[in-house]
Amino acid sequence: MSIDVSTVERRFQEQAGGDLDWVVRAPGRVNLIGEHTDYNEGFVLPMAIERAVWVGLRRRPDRWVRVYITADSQWREFHLNAMRRQGNTPIEYVQGTAWALREEGFDLRGWDGVLLGDVPIGAGLSSSAALEVAVARAFAAASNLPWDPVRMALIAQRAENRWVGVQCGIMDQLISACGKEDHALLIDCRSLESRPVPLPAGVKVVILDTGTRRGLADSAYNERRQACESTAASFGLKALRDLSVEALSARAGELDELTARRVRHVVGENARTQLAAQAMEKGDAESLGRLMVESHASLRDDYEVSSQALNAMVEIALQQPSCYGARMTGAGFGGCAVALVQEAAATQFAENVSREYRAKTGNEPAVYITGATAGASVLFSRDADPAA
Ligand code: GLA
After folding, report:
1. pLDDT tens-digit profile of 337-370?
2. 3-state SS record for the chain
3. Which of the listed residues 32, 33, 36 should we mutate to test ligand 1's pocket, taking the one with most ligand atoms within 8 A of CB?
4. pLDDT per residue over 37-94, tens digit each?
5. The domain at 5-197+373-384 falls in which architecture?
6. Which pTM was predicted?
7. Which CATH architecture has domain 203-370?
8. Enzyme catalytic residues
């Protein structure tokens, strides 16, 4: 059952007692194409999904923040003047976001709140970015801060990089803050400008969770990032974004074989992502699907961030006649694939792929057919002015 304002109000009443002042929501995301390009200042094409993190809150007269974490059935609290790591994951995202907002010079007020959500954790659907952006939205409501989604996404990213300690790029927080209903966003991760791109008519985005997990922090993510940055520097470039397909083929001989493959992924993926946005603007699901398949092959063979489970899921999805394209999505090594499917056949597609994946791998999959939703927002406000 999906979460709505009344679910959050009820939970608040049960746990905190009385009425809340605001209900805020920030969505998870699925990336259609443009993987491992954000930290190379390149292009990404994600969309915000129906699954989200919700916070229901009531302002406090002091500077305590008390949060009921539904997933752990526990209250956690901290004082805004005395934040220290508690070693409990959800509250670290709340504290980290508070810390990053204060670093930015915002004066924060305390609140009591309930935190709940339905973004699966560690599945590559950005549950942590959704949590950070939802918490930023909650603080903005309680402390009467101006809501600039791009600025808030950067603050949420700083919480993740510096408080939680994961060196992610900007994609996840940015799409959670800026998502647009029925659209993906082509984001330029250098300028942080984005262009809404409509989903082609008659297609559905289907998220295929392999049921396998691999943490980002202990993965090869930082290693890949490092290789990209040092190659850009050795070429005298600010980032791999500045390397064209032609310039790379002229200079590939300067790189060792492994580095050349890593860089080829990033350069090719940037080009594919821009082509994918153009295909979507023309309503061309076939071309978009083809580009997704090429992206998967490049992540599997050149960037080497896929896994057996992800490859199996993608292969099974592509065998279905209703499927335009499929690929791993997010950082990789486990988690989810994403498929583009004929709308009328989406339910049948989900059933067939689940059955075949289970039989082939023994893993238990989960499938989410999803539309594109709006980024972080206040869905209920007791104040007359909902922006307050
Ligand atoms: C994770 C990171 C993002 C991005 C993707 C790979 O989701 O949080 O910043 O780098 O991996 O595209």
Report:
1. 999 999 999 999 999 999 999 999 999 999 999 9
2. CCCCHHHHHHHHHHHCCCCCCEEEEEEEEEECCCCCCHHHCCEECEEEEEEEEEEEEEECCCCEEEEEEHHHCEEEEEECCCCCCCCCHHHHHHHHHHHHHHHCCCCCCCEEEEEEECCCCCCCCCHHHHHHHHHHHHHHHHCCCCCCHHHHHHHHHHHHHHHHCCCCCCHHHHHHHHCCCCEEEEEECCCCCEEEEECCCCEEEEEEECCCCCCCCCCCHHHHHHHHHHHHHHCCCCCHHHCCHHHHHHHHHHCCHHHHHHHHHHHHHHHHHHHHHHHHHCCCHHHHHHHHHHHHHHHHHCCCCCCHHHHHHHHHHHHCCCEEEEEECCCCCCCEEEEEEEHHHHHHHHHHHHHHHHHHHCCCCEEEEECCCCCCEEEEECCCCCCC
3. 36
4. 999 999 999 999 999 999 999 999 999 999 999 999 999 999 999 999 988 779 999 9
5. 2-Layer Sandwich (3.30)
6. 0.96
7. 2-Layer Sandwich (3.30)
8. 172
